[in-house]
Amino acid sequence: MYDLAIIGGGINGCGIARDAAGRGWKVLLCEQNDLGSGTSSASTKLIHGGLRYLEYYEFRLVREALMEREVLWGIAPHIVWPLRFVLPYHNKLRPRWLLRLGLFLYDNIGGRKKLPKTRSVDLSRDVTGLPLKPQFKRGFEYSDCWVEDSRLVVLNAMAAAELGAQIATRTRCLSATRQDGFWEVVLRDGVSGETRNIRACGLVNAAGPWVGDVAQTVTRNNDRAPVRLVQGSHIVVPKLYDHPECYIFQNADKRIFFVIPYEQDFTLIGTTDQDYQGDPALVHASVDEIAYLCSSASDYLRVKVTPEMVVWTYSGVRPLYDETGDSAAQAATRDYVLKLDAPDAGPPLLSVFGGKITTYRRLAESALAELAPRLPAVSGRAVGWTAHEALPGGDFPMEGFDDALRKAAVRYPFLAPAHLRRLLRAYGTRIGEILGGATSLDELGTLYGADLTEAELRYLVRAEWVRTADDALWRRSKLGLRLSKSEVAAVAEALRRILETREVAA
Ligand SMILES: Cc1cc2nc3c(=O)[nH]c(=O)nc-3n(C[C@H](O)[C@H](O)[C@H](O)COP(=O)(O)OP(=O)(O)OC[C@H]3O[C@@H](n4cnc5c(N)ncnc54)[C@H](O)[C@@H]3O)c2cc1C
Questions:
Q1: Which H helix or E strand runs over 286?
Q2: Residue closest by Cα to atom 14 of ligand 1
Q3: What is the value of pTM for the model shown?
Q4: Residue 328 is inside which H or E element, if any?
């Protein structure tokens, strides 16, 4: 018997699982595929207030999101770090006074302490002006943060599991019915095909873009789910410029998009915003979206970005709350909405609509505030604890990454600097669990391509629920950008072997 069952292992489900487990509730989370395999690995990966949401007067959302930047940087300084964004002034688009006003609010409503404030930039002299067309002479530069989105999901799941939660990946929730004052939940293991029943006092539908599908087929609510599915795609091209700053560009269609240095050797460009129908699992970047992103970037950059340069694309579906559905896709609210269905004396169902990676922790707090009066009394950590306790591997000072890297270089001198940096960025203080007492690269086992070793793969299986090559190469890391087809096949084969021997050993 569980206190809380959660459907969906994206950022919202895992964030709620961590908070609830820490507060003392007995939690089960089921994810039909891999953790973060839905929208939560397809974001732009920004912890941001969302400058453009100010235009829609979403002050509460922007303020809450801005405040989360330093909170999340503080609890996960390995996977979250500050970025500077350059916003060039474009004489045919938003006026300069409006940009200045927006950035003034951005700097001042969100409790900024460590992040540097906005400044004006003379793009004809500054290094950030070099990649831009010469007509862009003035601009602003402001701060937001980066997050490794799919790793944030898995770290929340790990933290929840370490606090006693059951995390069932590759496990689909088939049905949930109210029976004798509890939820009777049927789960199917996607690997063995076996089904099992569990009981829970409360249920959370955190199925992201599948929230409506789960409402119809799993919990069988009759109401139409007020969710609007909006597709967003990104393209990745070889590195377009050398400095570390990002760009936020405006388009004539009022949309904005980002150009961001990515994985050392690449540049990330996104995103699009278009209504989506169909199965969210099948979403992919269309030829038109790729062309749109290339031509939008080429309007600002000296270099012409073409579809032939694209080395990878990814696409996700935003599950936005929208009761009317009559506005432009980009205007639908990015705020989250929680709907509690708690009939008298019946077990509660909480459904999550919308939300951003940035505000997942606050969403989890609000979700538990709704559910707490209807769940068994427990005595765990206090409300708000997730703002202060580090996520796995993040237990070092928020500005301490370089220091941690120096210390790790002394401890593991045999690792190439780029390899060590990648491991420390991914696993933080937990790198010891991969590297153990190794004193040479050979001791880490087979090298599968780029710098992926057998020791890392074994850790990913042991500690991070990795089962397939995609899990390891596209969600726990982005090594998929660097491995050849035959190397990917070797990783898949190695995982099969590791999983088999684990099962035999178990
Ligand atoms: C293009 C794009 C860019 C974005 N950029 C940003 C950004 O820069 N910053 C930001 O803060 N936010 C951003 N967002 C928003 C953010 O990514 C999403 O709001 C967030 O990831 C939603 O998380 P979720 O947990 O609700 O959904 P998901 O991550 O989709 O998780 C839901 C999970 O439920 C599982 N599931 C569904 N049905 C079942 C079932 N029956 N049984 C078991 N499991 C089930 C699915 O497999 C899925 O993994 C962006 C979104 C998009 C699409």
A1: none
A2: 43
A3: 0.97
A4: none
Decide the pairing of beta strands 2-7 and 27-30.
parallel
Mean pLDDT, range 103-118, rounded to an integer: 92
C-beta of residue 85 within 8 angstroms of C-beta of residue 139: no
Handedness of CA 8, 10, 16, 20 (dihedral sign): positive
- State the amino acid at position 458 in one-letter form: R
Ligand 1 atom nearest residue 33's Cα: 47
The CA 39 to ligand 1 mean position distance, Å, reads 3
Q: What is the DSSP letter of 315?
A: E
Name the packing angle between helices 454-463 and 485-505 (round to 10°). 50
Q: Is the CB of 42 under 6 A from ligand 1?
A: yes
Both tokens of 494, joined, read 């190695």
Assess whether the C-beta atom of 315 lies below 6 angstroms from ligand 1: no
CA of 389 to the centre of ligand 1 (A): 24
How many CA atoms, within 13 angstroms, populate the side-chain half-sphere of residue 132? 28
CA distance 11 to 446: 32
Q: Report helix, strand or coil for 211.
A: helix
- Residue 36 CA to ligand 1 center (angstroms) comes to 7
* Position in ligand 1 atom list of the atom nearest CA 355: 19
If you measure from the C-alpha of residue 10 to the centroid of ligand 1, how many angstroms do you get, rounded to a whole number? 5
Is the CB–ligand 1 distance for residue 10 below 6 Å? yes
Question: What digits encode the pLDDT tens for the residues 393-437?
Answer: 999 999 999 999 999 999 999 999 999 999 999 999 999 999 999
Neighbouring CB atoms inside 10 A of 207's CB total: 29
**What residue has token string 């003035």?**
138
Report whether pLDDT(506) > 70.
no
Query: Could you tell me the distance, in angstroms and rounded to a whole number, from the CA of residue 278 to the centre of ligand 1?
Result: 16
Per the DSSP assignment, residues forming a β-bridge with 140 are: 87, 120
In angstroms, rounded to a whole number, what is the distance separating the alpha carbons of residues 445 and 286? 40
Q: Which residues contact 458 (CB under 8 A, 6 or more apart)?
A: 445, 498
Beta-carbon count within 10 A of 222 CB: 6
Please work out whether the CB of residue 12 comes within 6 Å of at least one atom of ligand 1: yes
Return the SS3 of 500. helix
Cα–Cα distances in angstroms (integers) from residue 289 to residues 228, 320, 325, 474, in the given order? 19, 20, 22, 21
Residue linked to tokens 């599950």: 319
Identify whether the C-beta of residue 84 lies closer than 8 Å to the C-beta of residue 246.
yes
Q: Is the CB of 231 under 6 A from ligand 1?
A: no
The b-or-e profile of 28-58 (16+ CB within 10 A means b, else e) is bbbbbbbbbbbbbbbbbbbbbbbbbbbebeb
Q: Write the CA distances from 13 to 128, 204, 258, 291, 360, integer angstroms.
A: 39, 8, 27, 34, 9
